[in-house]
Specification:
The complex is a heterodimer. By secondary structure, chain A is mainly beta. In chain A, strand 7 and strand 8 form a beta hairpin. Chain A is built from no helices and eleven strands. The N and C termini of chain A lie far apart (about 35 Å). In chain A, strands 2, 4, 5, 9, 10 and 11 form a six-stranded mixed sheet that branches. Chain B is an all-beta fold. Chain B contains no helices and eleven strands. The chains are: A mainly beta, B mainly beta.
Chain lengths: ~110, ~110
């Protein structure tokens, strides 16, 4: 079993839809949780990071962490074609060594 | 603000040739630096990380090595490339171990 599981997609939605991206993990020692967005042929760009359980909101993006279920989510409201990218979850016990999911490819059609 | 540079963006090398990829960070001092390899469908694999000049930790035994000759410079090297070294190589930095990592735009390496 992988430490972090993420559905590879692709996930196809129409413009304006609410998108839900998810990761599950097995290591209960993880305390820091991150979401990165990666466009084709580019490096990952940090979108959100949270510590422990709870929600964090930034504009159209909301990150949720449920440590009891070992489950994290990223919600994108009013999705735009420019949101089309691969979304990577990452987590760690400290930021020194991150464990990444394999990424979910999102396609938002106009 | 801080920026991270990687070059070259694309590289095609024959099997058995040497490799040198460079990463530099601007706008910060004494960053933690990381080298990752990203293979299709396999996520990011941490190769090396460094918390200071001359301090290198290797995560995966392999055909590669890393060096940090200056505070904000991180180099990934190989003496003889293998076909299996093909991939997308990413450098990342963080100001400290309790801050998230930020990535460069990577080098796409193809071995022929």
């Amino acid at each position: 079993q992988k430490e972090v599981e993420q559905d590879p997609g692709p996930l196809s939605v129409p413009e304006g839809a609410i998108v839900s991206l998810n990761c599950t993990y097995s290591n209960s020692a993880f305390q820091y949780f991150m979401w990165y967005r990666q466009y084709s042929r580019k490096g990952p760009e940090l979108l959100m990071y949270t510590y422990s359980s709870g929600n964090k909101e930034d504009g159209r993006f909301t990150a949720q962490v449920d440590k009891s279920s070992k489950y994290i989510s990223l919600f994108i409201r009013d999705s735009q074609p420019s949101d089309s990218a691969t979304y990577l979850c990452a987590m760690s016990g400290g930021f020194q060594k991150l464990v990444f999911g394999t990424g979910t490819r999102l396609l938002v059609s106009p | 603000s801080q920026t991270i540079h990687q070059w070259p963006a694309t590289l095609v090398q024959p099997v058995g040739s040497p490799l040198s990829l460079e990463c530099t960070v601007e706008g910060t001092s004494n960053p933690n630096l990381y080298w990752y390899r990203q293979a299709a469908g396999r996520g990011l694999q941490l190769l090396f990380y460094s918390v200071g000049i001359g301090q290198i930790s290797s995560e995966v035994p392999q055909n590669l090595s890393a060096s940090r000759p200056q505070d904000r410079q991180f180099i990934l090297s190989s003496k003889k490339l293998l076909l299996s070294d093909s991939g997308f190589y990413l450098c990342a930095w963080t100001a400290s171990s309790n801050q998230p990592q930020h990535f460069g735009d990577g080098t796409r390496l193809s071995i022929l």
